[in-house]
Amino acid sequence: MIKFRLTLLGFLALAFFSCEKEEEKVEEAPTESFRNEVAATEVHVAKAEVKSFDYLINATGKLEAASQVTAVIEQAGFMTELNVREGQTVQKGEVIARLDPTEAQLQLEKAEISLRNAQADYESMKMGYETIFASDDEERKSAIDDQLKAKSGVFLAEVSLKEAKLIRDRCELKAPISGKIADLKFKEGSLVGASQELCEILGTSQLILKVKVLESDISLISTNQRAEVYAVSDSQNAIDGKVIGINPIVDDNGLVQVSISINSRKNLLPGMNARAIIRAPQSNSLVVPKDALVYRSGRAVVFSIENNESKWNYVEVGKDNGEEVEILEGVEEGSTVITSNNLQLAHQAPVQIITE
User: Fold this and answer.
1) Which residue ranges in the chain fall short of pLDDT 50?
2) Is 274 helix (H, G, I), strand (E, B) or coil?
3) What was the pLDDT predicted at 35?
4) CA 282, CA 175: separation in Å to the nearest integer?
5) What range(s) does the Multidrug resistance protein MdtA-like barrel-sandwich hybrid domain occupy (predicted)?
6) Dihedrals φ, ψ of 274, to 5°?
7) Nearest-10 Cα torsion for 139, 145, 146, 149
8) CA neighbor of 221 nearest in space, from 252, 239, 244, 238
9) Are 35-53+285-353 and 57-66+206-282 in the same CATH fold?
């Protein structure tokens, strides 16, 4: 029985020693033999370059008319003519509505009669000063003339006539600017009051897009900076614009309003939603194509090539313009970086550069 136990223990010890030897053999196998058996991954490459870099600031907002004026009815009366409709284009000075001028015309005629009466009185009074008016004393003649006009009521009648003409002219409502009619509030035949609004006139030859930009990006924006505008109604075609104003106030959400001027198109209207891309040029930035950037465990990685093998580089990323990425740290200028087949690439994996 003792002999059997010794034999069993010897057998187990021999088996354990044999397994340990096999493990040592496996560990000692050269890694180069495995790399040679793995096919090289075909990759496209690019250079990490220091160059000018356009950082793109995206923002959305609404289009507004560059000029917008409210047409106001200045006196009460019946609207006998309405010559416009919503959406109609009018020119500055064009008559867009008329009020009944009957009462205003009567007031004008009364003022004209009053002036004639005052002038008749003036001429009668002037006859008593023939000697003075026949003299060469211009200063005295002017003083006497003013006194007679004031005493006869000529000055007051002249002012009353101007006032009556103004009231009569207000029976015609003219467009203060050129543009399109919007928000028409009355119809022909309506009884309107003084100071009531008739409509809005939108100067649509030029539009302004007002967008909100993050306060962290506002230092990169200045007036006359180029922008591209994409209207929701035509999101495929860019419209050239430029920054014309920056509101110096940051709102409660940490946003700053930026105004972008664009030349109007026929299919654009105030109130439409639009997206703007403001280009902020950055000089002397180290950039790589965006395809070179991958994320592993939440960290940014760029693979470079050394000795036909991939090299794993953790990088610090700066600005991104959709095509290129600014690299602040982790890759040297002139490095060859991998831009394809890098999503599952490992460190020190064999790679083959595709040259086409």
Assistant:
1) 1-29, 34
2) strand
3) 53
4) 47
5) 77-199
6) -150, 160
7) 180
8) 244
9) no
Under 8 Å between Cβ of 242 and 263: no
Which percentage of the chain shows pLDDT scores above 90?
64
Q: Domain 35-53+285-353: which topology?
A: 2.40.420
Identity at 184, one-letter amino acid code = L
Question: What does each C-alpha distance from 135 to 123, 126, 129, 229 come to in angstroms?
Answer: 18, 14, 10, 76
Q: What one-letter code names the amino acid at 46?
A: A
Question: Tokens at residue 124, please?
Answer: 């009668």
Kindly state the tokens that stand for 289: 């194509």
Q: Whole-angstrom distance between the N-terminal and C-terminal Cα of the chain?
A: 78
Closest CA to 182 of 102, 99, 70: 70
The amino acid that residue 59 corresponds to is A
Residue 269 has a pLDDT of 84
With tokens 């790679």, the residue in question is 351
* SS3 (DSSP) at 29: coil
Q: Could you give the CA distance from residue 220 to residue 182 in angstroms, rounded to a whole number?
A: 37
Distance CA 279, CA 291 (A): 21
Q: What is the predicted pLDDT for the residue at 14?
A: 46
In the prediction, which pLDDT does 100 show?
96
What CA–CA distance (Å, rounded) separates 75 from 168? 10
The tokens for 278 are 């403001």
Q: What's the rounded Cα separation, in Å, for the pair 259 and 244?
A: 6
The residue assigned the tokens 């040679």 is 36
| Of 340, 287, 346, 350, residue with least CA distance to 312 | 346
User: Strands 293-296 and 273-289, how do they pair?
Assistant: unpaired
What does CATH list as the number for 57-66+206-282?
2.40.30.170
Asked if residues 220 and 318 have their Cβ atoms less than 8 Å apart, the reply is no
76 in helix, strand or coil? coil
Provide the pLDDT for residue 4.
41
Per-domain boundaries in the chain: 35-53+285-353, 57-66+206-282, 102-170
Separation CA 214–CA 221 (nearest Å) = 11
Q: Decide: 326 and 47 in contact? Cβ < 8 Å.
A: no
Q: Which residues contact 167 (CB under 8 A, 6 or more apart)?
A: 75, 104, 107, 108
